[in-house]
Amino acid sequence: MSEQHLITLTVNGHDHELLVAARRTLVDAIRHDLRLTGTHVGCEHGVCGACTILVDGAPARACLMFAVQAEGRDIRTVESLGSPEAPNDLQRAFSEHHALQCGFCTPGFLMLAEGFLTEHPHATKSEIRAAVSANLCRCTGYQPIVEAVDDCARKRRCAPGPAAAPSATQAADTTTPAGPARAAADPGHGQPDTPRSP
C-alpha cells in the first residue's frame, strides 16, 4: 500500500483537501479526484503539453508533477476560463480562427496561451509562435492557433477593462455553442474519463 498524504490546494478559486498516494500525479488528482476532465492526458512524459495547467500563474505540465508538489499552490485548469454558455475571449478567438480540429490538445494550448499572454501582453506574432511551439498539435498546422492568440492579445490591449471576462450579454446567453465553439469552450466534451491506475 502506497503511503498516503493529505494535501491542501486551491483549484480554480476553490480550496480542496485531498488524500493522495505519494506517487499520484497531479493530472490524475485533477481528473479523477476532482473530476475536472478538461485537462487531458497525452504522452505522460511532458512532451505533448495536452495536460498544461497554470501553477501559481505559470504554465506547467500536470503529468510531470506529483499531487503532493501542489501543496499550498494555486492551480488553474481550462475550466477556469469560461463555459459553453459564456466562453472567455481566448476560447472565442480559438473558435473564430478555427484553431482546433479534434480538440484533444486544445485545453493545453488554451492554458499555455493564457499564462503566456498574462506575462507577455505585448507579444509579437513571432514570440507567440515560439511559445505555442512548446505544445504538440497533429491537426491544425499551428498557424490558426498563432492567429487566435495574436487576435486575443490585440483585443485585450485595446479593451478598456478585463477582456477575459465574458460580457453580461454573453453570460446571460444560455445557448450552447455547437461544433468548434463548443469544443473550445468545453474541452472535456466528447472526451471519456478513462480510469487509470493510481
Automatic annotation (TrEMBL):
Keywords: 2Fe-2S, Iron, Iron-sulfur, Metal-binding, Oxidoreductase. It holds the Pfam family Fer2_2. Residues 159-190 have a biased composition (Low complexity). Residues 5-81 form the 2Fe-2S ferredoxin-type domain. Coiled coil: none annotated. Residues 159-198 are annotated as: Disordered. InterPro entries: 2Fe-2S-bd, 2Fe-2S-bd_dom_sf, 2Fe-2S_ferredoxin-like_sf, 2Fe-2S_ferredoxin-type, 2Fe2S_fd_BS, Beta-grasp_dom_sf, Diverse_Oxidoreductases. PROSITE patterns: 2FE2S_FER_1, 2FE2S_FER_2. This is (2Fe-2S)-binding protein.
